[in-house]
Every structure is written in structure tokens, then in C-alpha cells.
Amino acid sequence: MKNPLGQSLIEAVVTLGIVILMVTGLVVVAATSLKNMQASKNRATAAQLGQESLEVARKARDTDWTTFIGYSGKYCVSEARVLTTTANITSCPLVSAKFKRTLDFTYTAATLTMNIVSTV
Questions:
Q1: Among 63, 44, 42, 51, which Cα is nearest to 116's?
Q2: β-sheet bridge partners, residue 113
Q3: Is 23 helix (H, G, I), strand (E, B) or coil?
Q4: Contact 91, 81 (CB under 8 A)
Q5: Beta strand 102-108 with 113-119: parallel, antiparallel or unpaired?
Q6: Per-residue model confidence (pLDDT) at position 36
Q7: Is 95 helix (H, G, I), strand (E, B) or coil?
Q8: Above 70 in pLDDT, residue 3?
Q9: 101: exposed, middle or buried (C-beta count within 10 Å: 0-12, 13-18, 19+)?
Q10: Interior CA angle at 44 toward 101 and 90, to 5°?
Q11: Distances (CA, A) of 116 to 58, 74, 93
């Protein structure tokens, strides 16, 4: 005759192991989803800030072309959308609590073109 108490104990341990594996899988999926959601939100914010930086450059161009073609090198773009010269990005103020944004101006007089690179 088999011991039904021992068999029930084994079944309970196996069931508990399966439940623990399932819960662990769900927790991993949830944590990965939250991480990806935050990364996606950061990318969207960075794209928006980059677009705003280019709008600042367009405004400067439309306001005074003579001053605009004098821009050369890196400029920080503040939260208030003000351009300030900078030697490196570490001195730029934070925007939206975690991003720094710069505009890099390069004017080519021969072709009358201004290349602008926005970095967030």
C-alpha cells in the first residue's frame, strides 16, 4: 500500500515550484516592460527637446541674419530657450531635469550655408 500523505506532499512541492516559476516570469516581464516604457518616454522627450533646439536656431535666423551667420561652435540651449556659448556640454544647464542640449553651428561662406547639429 502506498503512502498517500507522502504523495500529497510531493504534489504540493511540485505545484509550489511551478507557481514560483510562473510568478517570477511575470515579475521579469513587468520589470522589463517598465524599463522599456521609461526608455521610450526618454527618447520621445529627447526628440521633442531636439526639435525645440532647432526652432530656437530658426528663430535666431529669422530675427537677425547678420548675427546668425556670426554663430560658430557650440551653444547651450537653456530651459528658457536662450542660446549661450559653451566650450563643452558639461557646462550646459539641465533641461527637463535630466537632459542637456546643444546646438553646433558651422557657417560656410562660400555656399552661404549654415549647418546646425542639435544634440540632446
A1: 51
A2: 108
A3: helix
A4: no
A5: antiparallel
A6: 96
A7: strand
A8: no
A9: buried
A10: 20
A11: 10, 10, 20
pLDDT tens-digit map of 30-84: 999 999 999 999 999 999 998 998 998 889 889 988 888 888 888 888 888 888 8
Phi, psi for residue 71 in degrees, rounded to 5: -65, 130
Strands (E) across the chain are located at 73-77, 83-85, 102-108, 113-119
Sign of torsion over alpha carbons 6, 11, 16, 17: positive
Q: Is the dihedral of CA 33, 100, 57, 70 positive or negative?
A: negative
Which amino acid would we find at residue 85? T
Distance CA 114, CA 62 (A): 13
- Asked whether the predicted pLDDT for residue 4 surpasses 70, the reply is no
| Length of the chain measured in residues | 120
Query: Per-residue DSSP letters for 97-112?
Result: TTB--EEEEEEETTTT
Q: If you ran DSSP here, which 8-state letter would residue 69 be given?
A: T
Strand positions, DSSP E, 5-112:
73-77, 83-85, 102-108
First to last CA, the chain: 74
